[in-house]
Amino acid sequence: MSTPDTAAPDPLGQALLAYEQGQLSAILAVHSSVTDEEELPAAYFFRSLWEMPDMERTALDECRGRVLDLGAGAGCHALELQQRGFSVKAMDISPGAVQVMQQRGVREVACHDLFDPALAQGERFDTLLMLMNGIGLTGTLGGLERFLHHAKGLLNPGGQILATSSDISYLYEDEDGALVFNLNGPYYGEVTYTMQYAQLQGPEFPWIFADPSLLQDAAMTAGYEVEFLEEDDQQQYLVRLTLI
């Protein structure tokens, strides 16, 4: 899909709009193929700089030049970068999220799929920002490889991708700490999700959690220099991919 289906259910966007309109207890139900149902408060998308994890603050400090914020949600990162004087464009596939960002004062907002060819026509960026496990936006292992090539058309010479992801192999550990998954099956970090807000159920979508070695191999093969900037004790990491 190259452009968002604005007729599709948009539970994320509706939850963000509800929060923006004063329903501060708005909560998304998140269903995945690997864990039990989880609750995601809409408030999380509206966090201030000092409510953000250290890893996200580090990523904002490492931004340079013209920034494209991919999967921007309610625009918390874009708004912080604007305050710092950056020229930033915020993009999300959710029409509701785009509306919220416009209402909150994000100056440049676009509603696009990650692979929309319109993104690569004429405009170039110095930093692509992909936070909140942003690598997951690429969907699958094949999607990650595709995106790394696609991003070359979005970046200026020497441009960078700042992205977060995590290794979820711990979900497959047995009682003795050994990993138990099918080595001949799909990559264990490929997950499917659905979101629900109130009675509004969204479509199923793929999401990838890329372990560091897999991400490094894919990025180097695609022609990027790889630098891991930060990791935490929950196996999440921040990586910088620099176009060689």
Q: In this structure, how is the largest beta sheet organized?
A: 7 strands, mixed
Structural class: alpha/beta
Mean pLDDT: 92
How many helices does DSSP assign? 6
Principal-axis shape? globular
As for the number of domains, it is 1
What is the architecture at the second tier of CATH?
3-Layer(aba) Sandwich
CATH fold type: Rossmann fold
How far is it from the N-terminal to the C-terminal residue, by CA?
29 Å
- Broad CATH class: Alpha Beta
Write up this protein.
The chain has one domain (about 50-190, about 205-244): Rossmann fold, CATH 3.40.50.150. It contains 6 helices and 12 strands. The chain has helices at about 10-20, 55-60, 75-85, 95-105, 140-150, 210-220, and strands at about 25-30, 40, 65-70, 90, 110, 125-130, 155-165, 190-195, 200, 205-210, 225-230, 235-244. The strands form 2 sheets. Strands 5-4-3-6-7-12-11 form a 7-stranded mixed β-sheet, with helices on both faces. Strands 1, 2, 8, 9 and 10 form a 5-stranded antiparallel β-sheet that branches. Helix 1 (about 10-20) runs parallel beside helix 4. The mean pLDDT is about 90.
Entry summary:
This protein has 244 residues and is of the alpha/beta class.
Features of the shown structure:
6 helices; 7-stranded mixed β-sheet; 244 residues; alpha/beta
Please give the structural blueprint.
Elements: H1 11-20, E1 27-32, E2 38-41, H2 54-62, E3 67-70, H3 76-83, E4 88-92, H4 95-104, E5 109-111, E6 125-130, H5 141-150, E7 155-166, E8 190-197, E9 200-201, E10 205-208, H6 212-222, E11 224-231, E12 236-243
Parallel strand pairs: 3-4, 3-6, 4-5, 6-7
Antiparallel strand pairs: 1-2, 1-8, 7-12, 8-9, 8-10, 11-12
